[in-house]
């Protein structure tokens, strides 16, 4: 193997390790494994994730670009803090992005888009019903499965928008709002039947090719979730710790 080939192989390996560190860190941040404002010490992260400093720095810089991690000169990386004003800004920004994407998707989507939307809703509904019918507290893996199906449904809504930029921004805003939604679901009695009804109504409006109604329902659903989180915040002086 010559020097160029060795360098390319090393770069590919570093890229794979960065991706692994990024996905693991993002998962743990969203699941609340780290407290808002907590310093991210590279030495401890190296032990936790089994990767070197370089991939960790790259992963943290990616998370910084997604507003999940803060960075300051001489202080290093910290988990981004959470607040009600920031949450509402995230929600309203998500509404702006996803309602535009949804309008485009409804206009351009064909039979395959409709079929995928119905399929993703069915999967989401089954997952929601399974959690609602359980008499015990659900496990982290069960919640992760439900959240994955929820994510798939919202992606299916805007899948026909034909805008990689809107899709990328939607993905970022989804995860920013997920940080707030997860503790709300864990600490409050979330109205599961209302959750299912909201999503069903959004899907039905989209399939009926009623973009204004579908967008209004989507925005109302996001703001309803925000009100739930705000209520939790008012009941608990440190709801995100």
Question: How is the CATH topology of the largest domain named?
Answer: Four Helix Bundle (Hemerythrin (Met), subunit A)
Distance between the termini: 51 Å
Total helical segments: 9
Low-confidence stretches: 1-14
Number of strands: 2
Number of domains: 2
Largest sheet: 2 strands, antiparallel
What does this structure look like?
The structure is a single chain. This protein is 75% helix and 3% strand. By secondary structure, it is mostly helical. It has two domains: 3-79, Orthogonal Bundle (Arc Repressor Mutant, subunit A); 84-235, Up-down Bundle (Four Helix Bundle (Hemerythrin (Met), subunit A)), CATH 1.20.120. It has a two-stranded antiparallel sheet. Helix 1 crosses helix 3 (53-65) and helix 7 packs parallel to helix 9. The longest helix has 28 residues, at 3-30. 25% of the residues are buried. Residues 1-14 have low confidence and may be disordered.
